[in-house]
Amino acid sequence: MIYFVTGNKNKYEEIKRYLSEKIEMKSIPYPEIQADKIEDVALHGIEFLKEKLNENFFVEDSGLFIKALKGFPGVFSSYVFKTIGNEGIKKLMKGIKDREAEFISVIAFYDGKINIFKGVCRGKISEEIKGRGGFGYDPIFIPYGSRKTFAEMSIEEKNEYSHRGKAVRKLKEYLDEKFRD
Ligand code: IMP
Fold first, then answer.
1. How far is it, in rounded angstroms, from Cα 38 to Cα 96?
2. Residue 66: which residues within 8 A CB-CB, separation 6 or more?
3. 137, 162, 164: which to mutate for ligand 1, most atoms within 8 A of CB?
4. Tens digit of each residue's pLDDT (9 = 90 or more) over 20-58
5. With 80 as the cut, is the pLDDT of residue 66 above it?
6. Sign of the torsion formed by the C-alpha atoms of 161, 165, 167 and 169
7. Looking at the chain, which terminus has fewer C-beta neighbours within 10 angstroms, N or C?
8. Which of 159, 80, 74, 161 is nearest to 122 (CA)?
9. Taking a C-beta distance cutoff of 8 angstroms, is the pair 114, 46 a contact?
């Protein structure tokens, strides 16, 4: 059994599609430090949790980086979502032509050593808030290759494009190799 330590059911649902029979969600709060890089947030989480769990486990941290805002909200994504939300980002982006943005997901998996799997999804911030699915910034992000926001997609479709889908496919490759026999 592998534990995915998160309080976010949506992330669990997305990741479960790839590792269904093997994983269990565990909601143990861990400190999310204010670092410059998503990787550091995840690594710090592992350091905090590794003494508390006896099974293999992983955490996933992510963020939205908007080019015209010099990478904002980035590592502040969670705080910014809770405060100004999608309406606030829409306002900040008003009149800005360059809508380029990327989502980054970092999965840190602990099995006695720390393994990092990273996924990046490039796309743009939509002009309008659209769709009812997903969570967080999904209604304002359109990945390259699609005309829909993440919030207008099924979990499977979002996974094909998303930062998290990319990171979890790398984790799955690692696990398939590790538990091959
Ligand atoms: P954290 O990794 O849970 O700290 O997430 C950082 C912030 O980014 C939260 O506000 C999430 O709602 C948002 N976020 C992370 N991943 C996604 C995603 O796949 N879609 C939309 N928002 C996301």
1. 26
2. 72, 73, 89, 93, 100, 101, 125
3. 137
4. 778 999 999 998 888 889 999 999 999 999 999 989 999
5. yes
6. negative
7. C
8. 161
9. yes
Domains, the chain: 2-178 (3.90.950.10)
* Residue 4: band (very low, low, confident or very high) from pLDDT cuts 50, 70, 90: very high
* pTM summary value: 0.96
Mean of pLDDT values over 139-160: 98
User: For residue 32, which atom of ligand 1 is closest to its CA?
Assistant: 4
Q: Where are the beta strands (DSSP E) in the chain?
A: 2-5, 23-26, 56-66, 100-110, 114-125, 141-143
Q: What is the CA radius of gyration of the chain?
A: 16
